[in-house]
Structure formats: C-alpha cells, structure tokens
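Weekly structure sync, notes
Attendees: PL (lead), two postdocs, one rotation student
Agenda item 3: pending single-chain targets
PL asked that the sequence for the first pending target be pasted directly into the notes so everyone works from the same version. It is reproduced below exactly as submitted, 226 residues in total.
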Amino acid sequence: MAASKPKSQTVGQVPSRTASHTRFKSPLQRSDTTGPGSSAPSTLPPPPFQSEAAVVGLEWWLDAHMALAAELLCLEQLVDAMPEAGAHGETIRRLTANAEAVRDALYELYCDAADDRMAPLLGRGAALEMHVRGSYAWCARVVGLLATVTNGLRDEAGQDWAAVKAGYRESVDRFVAPPEALREGARALPIDFTSPIEPLRNLPQDLEQLFASMLELQTTLTKRFG
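Predicted structure, written out during the meeting:
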C-alpha cells in the first residue's frame, strides 16, 4: 500500500492517532492468513493519523521508513524464494523477523512523534532524531547484509564469506547504542505517563522496545557472523 505524502496541519494542533491500526505481518509469517476468502495484510504500515498525514517536519522520518519497508519487502521475497538451506536458512528467517521488529518499533515512535510535546527531542542534533536517523541507516545496512547472504545461499558458486564478514563489520560500525540522554529527555517531558488517557503514555515502552529489538538483532548477527 502506498503511503500518502504528508499534509500540512494547523500549528499547535496535534493530529489524533488512530484508535487502532492492524499490525501487518511479513510474508514469512502469513500462514494464518492464507486460504479461500482471506487477504494478507499489507507489508507497508497504515498511515498513523486519521488525516493520513505526518506532522510537518517529520517527512524525513516517513521517507526513511518507507525506504526501509521496501528493502525489507525485497528481502522477504528473496527469503520466500530461497530453497531449503538448513540451519543457514533458518538463521536468515530469524534475522529477517528481528529486522521487521526494528521496523515496527520505529513506526510506533513515528506515531508518538506527532505530539507537539515531543519537539525537544526532535530537530537536527536532538536526541531522538539523531537516534532514529542512525537506527534507519544501521537497519538498512543489516537488511543489505541479509540480502547478500540470502543470494549467496542460492548461488551455485557458493557463499562469498569475505563479503559477508565485511558487511557484518559495517553493521557493527553503524550500530547505535541506546543513549541514556534520550531516556532522560523522554522522562523530562511534561507527560503524565500514569494517565490512562494520555496519548504519550506508552512513549517509554516504545523507546525500550526499539532499544531491545535493535540489540536483539545485533546480538543474533554477532552470534552468527562475528
């Protein structure tokens, strides 16, 4: 599903987040959606706001997200077409699922970023924007590495392990560790995280989910290729 380009909104107005949105599954996880009359969920996420718009200033985030989603879709198609490859194949499937978890966590934070109170964490040099930009760059590098490995498993000439090792080292160099300044900045926002009607009540959990999913992906990569 193609995403709409962001539209302008009234200054100071926070777009309301959709009450719920269907979490999409990758083709690797769709066994429960196949069959007569069923339709698989979209690989790309639904728009986060009822107006199908992003907050002005977050266009870069949406662009980065759609680029990563497209790269993951290509990887998923490669994995689907991969012949039985034993333990190597299972590892690639698990790593692909880990990368999807990072994508989903970044999307949840994109929805949070609509709120005007998030402004101190956004903008060039601000903690959240720096971490998110770095996270997309790192995850895209990992997806590229997984595509290289998947293609190698399908190549009759065999895997180019030197290229795989080089790609792994690049992913390590680009990995962005959870910044404590971002946690502190989020806690300092004028938000009552205990309120059941607070739109940003899940912000701390959304941040921790991103940190955890990134660490899980990098740890699994290290176990396999380090």
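Discussion points:
- The CA atoms of residues 167 and 207 lie 27 Å apart.
- Residues 127-154 form the longest helix (28 residues).
Action: rotation student to compare against the earlier draft before next sync.
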